[in-house]
């Protein structure tokens, strides 16, 4: 899924933009750090998580007590998963680059370490242009 695909899918997302934010790979695509991702992961507040539960979406309670929903094969929602802050990008709520870096560092998986290197390269390139 590229930037155009993500924007199109999120345009039709039926929840309030103040209740969710785009995280991980999809956020990196929107920033222009990665070209593609295979799914869209979102963070959400308790209000939206309660709505999803009321609407019958199955969920799993994570170790931290928050809920994880799989809305479709390409859309997952994590309750209260926010590092740093949310900004607006392409008219969508997206976790800040600083927050994504903190999240990726805390996860520490091989793919997260690769993404951290991509972010560092992006920030260096952006700095050299300015």
Structural descriptors:
130 residues; globular; Beta Polymerase, domain 2; 7 strands; five-stranded mixed sheet; two-stranded antiparallel sheet
Characterization of this structure:
By secondary structure, the protein is of the alpha+beta class. 44% of the residues lie in helices and 24% in strands. The strands form 2 sheets. The protein has a 5-stranded mixed sheet with strand order 1-2-5-4-3. The N and C termini lie far apart (30 Å).
User: How many angstroms does the end-to-end distance come to?
Assistant: 30 Å
Q: What is the global morphology?
A: globular
Oligomer kind: single chain
**Rg, Cα atoms, Å:** 15 Å
Q: How many distinct beta strands?
A: 7
What's the number of domains? 1
Regions with pLDDT < 50 over 5+ consecutive residues? Answer: none
The spatial strand order of the largest sheet comes to 1-2-5-4-3
User: What would CATH call the class?
Assistant: Alpha Beta
Number of helix segments?
5
Give the overall average pLDDT.
Answer: 95
The largest sheet is: 5 strands, mixed
Series of secondary-structure elements, N-terminal to C-terminal: HEHEHEEEEEHH
Layout of strands and helices, then pairs:
Blueprint: H1 3-11, E1 20-23, H2 24-31, E2 40-44, H3 46-54, E3 59-61, E4 67-72, E5 75-79, E6 86-89, E7 92-95, H4 97-107, H5 110-129
Parallel strand pairs: 2-5
Antiparallel strand pairs: 1-2, 3-4, 4-5, 6-7
Outline:
By secondary structure, the chain is α+β, with helices and mostly antiparallel strands. It has helices at 3-11, 24-31, 46-54, 97-107, 110-129, and strands spanning 20-23, 40-44, 59-61, 67-72, 75-79, 86-89, 92-95.
């Amino acid at each position: 899924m590229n930037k155009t695909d993500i924007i199109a899918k999120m345009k039709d997302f039926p929840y309030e933009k103040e209740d969710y934010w785009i995280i991980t790979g999809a956020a990196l695509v929107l920033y222009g750090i990665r070209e593609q991702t295979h799914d869209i992961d979102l963070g959400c507040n308790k209000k939206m998580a309660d709505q999803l539960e009321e609407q019958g979406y199955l969920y799993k309670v994570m170790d931290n007590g928050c809920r994880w929903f799989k809305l479709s094969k390409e859309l997952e929602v994590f309750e209260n998963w926010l590092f740093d802050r949310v900004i607006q990008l392409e008219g969508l709520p997206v976790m800040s680059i600083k927050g994504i870096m903190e999240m990726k560092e805390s996860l520490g998986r091989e793919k997260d370490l690769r993404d951290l290197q991509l972010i560092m390269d992006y920030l260096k390139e952006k700095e050299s242009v300015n």
